[in-house]
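Work Package 4 report. The design task specified in the project plan requires that, given a folded chain encoded as C-alpha cells, an amino acid be chosen for each position. We show below one input record used in the internal validation round.
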C-alpha cells in the first residue's frame, strides 16, 4: 500500500469512527507527552476523589459530567503530579514552582492582609 493509499484509508477510518479516533489520538498524545494513558488519567482522577488538587473543587461540570481536566507535570523532571482544572493549571503556570511566591500569595490573601515590609524581595 502506498503512503497516499494509507493516508486515505486512515482518513476514511477517522471519519467513520469519530469517537474512537478522538480517543486514540488523545491516548497517543498523552503517551508521548507524559508517559501515561487515558486509563491512567482516569485512575488519577479516582485517586484524587474527583477533586482538583489545587483548588479542591470537583472536576465535574454543573451537569455532573467529568471535565477533561489537564495533566499537571513537573517541567524539570517530567513527573506527572495530577489532573487539574485548566484555570488552576494556568495559575500555577504564572507562579511557576516558586514556593516563596506561593507563600506570598497565600499571605496576601490571608485575613491579616499583606504589607510590603513583611518580605525581603532581594533588592
Amino acid at each position: 500500500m502506498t503512503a497516499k493509499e494509507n493516508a486515505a484509508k486512515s482518513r476514511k477510518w477517522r471519519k467513520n469512527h469519530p469517537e474512537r479516533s478522538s480517543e486514540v489520538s488523545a491516548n497517543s498524545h498523552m503517551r508521548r507527552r507524559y508517559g501515561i494513558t487515558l486509563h491512567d488519567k482516569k485512575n488519577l482522577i479516582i485517586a484524587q476523589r474527583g477533586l482538583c488538587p489545587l483548588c479542591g473543587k470537583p472536576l465535574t461540570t454543573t451537569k455532573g459530567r467529568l471535565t477533561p481536566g489537564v495533566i499537571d507535570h513537573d517541567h524539570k523532571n517530567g513527573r506527572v503530579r495530577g489532573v487539574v482544572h485548566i484555570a488552576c493549571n494556568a495559575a500555577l503556570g504564572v507562579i511557576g514552582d516558586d514556593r516563596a511566591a506561593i507563600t506570598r500569595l497565600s499571605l496576601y490573601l490571608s485575613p491579616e492582609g499583606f504589607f510590603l515590609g513583611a518580605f525581603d524581595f532581594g533588592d
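Strands lie at 70-73, 80-84. Validation will be extended to a larger panel in the next phase.
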